[in-house]
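In pairs, describe these two lines:
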Amino acid sequence: MKHLLLAGLLPLVATLPGCSRAEEIGAVDTVFKWIGPDHKIVVDAYDDPKVKGVTCYVSRAKTGGIKGGLGLAEDRSEASIACRQTGPISFVGKPLDKQEEMFSERISLVFKKLRVVRMVDTQRNTLVYLTYSDRVIEGSPQNSVTAVALPAGTVVPLAR
């Protein structure tokens, strides 16, 4: 009964605002599973919604098996990030906050999220991106950081 209730909630949770806007670039299998999908490492691309021309690539473990196939498994906390300039840089919409969450993606049924935060280093004219996971009660110190140096003369519009 409990599994049926959780399986019924899965489509609702997947449609909540703030769910992933990632594009899967590729994946490699790490552990073969007889039943359900294999455990794997996936690489997703996230275009910065406020900085046109910057894309972040995040690699992370994705749990397979029966629970993983049903979306009930809790993925591991480790992730790696690399952000790059992929086109001319321009700023979209409102000015940037000095630090703000760009993306968050559910990596367990309810309690755990993978997050990507953008920070602006005005002294070095650089955008710094951090990925980590958190949980409602206890997060993980596992993290990864990358930076995109802005072209000379680029001025970041910062919110006051």
Remarks:
- Residues 2-14 form the longest helix (13 residues).
- Residues 103 and 116 are 5 Å apart (CA to CA).
